[in-house]
Amino acid sequence: MSPTPRPRHGTLAAVAAAILLVVLGWAPPASADHTLPPGIPSTSAAQSQLDSLTVAPKGAQSGYDRSLFPHWVDVQGDCSARQVVLLRDGHDVVTDTDCQPTSGRWWSAFDDTWVYEDPSRISVDHMVPLSEAWKTGARHWSTSERRAFANDVDSSQLWLATPSSNSDKGDDDPSAWMPPNTAVHCDYAKSWITVKYRYDLTVTSAERSALQNTIDTRC
Fold first, then answer.
1. pTM for this one?
2. Over the stretch 68-87, which tens digit does the pLDDT of each residue have?
3. How far apart are CA 69 and CA 32, in angstroms?
4. Which residue spans within 50-157 are E strands per DSSP?
5. Which of 9, 61, 102, 156 has the most CB atoms around its CB within 10 Å?
């Protein structure tokens, strides 16, 4: 399911786009450019995965530190996980000889916002936050297992997000936070479910209810 811009801004956006097209020769990206991470399951697969997740209270935050999840390590040659995601989900991305993107455009699904040219203005968000993983099973993992989780470019664990939406989400699960862009709620929930399933992480009762409600009403 490809997310689409929220309709309440449609008229204003159309006027702005028309002005830019005439004055600057600029055209807005097509909806097909709204790239989401790989590995988001079908609704039926996500439902099956949700049904199989263990429901349990979250563990303690004590002992957690981000350094316990070595992140943005090299995963493809000399390219870090962050660099790979910026290239994987970006458009017209130009990189230097060290794999670092120097220009391009990136879409943040959380708030339906485009970022242009400057890659420092786009974040790479862990769908299931590191501290959330710690409290739902990762505290028992080895360092190598936590490294794999924090740099998983092959699943839907890593999403592009504006820094503001990334910060707004924090380490909340879907019972406490969902993206302001409601058009992406289905894919967001399915992504959260499949990451929890992939890494055998638990969910709380409230979290499971929020995910089920999203599948029922948004998918």
1. 0.85
2. 999 999 999 999 999 999 99
3. 34
4. 74-76, 79-80, 91-95, 101-108, 113-116, 123-126
5. 156
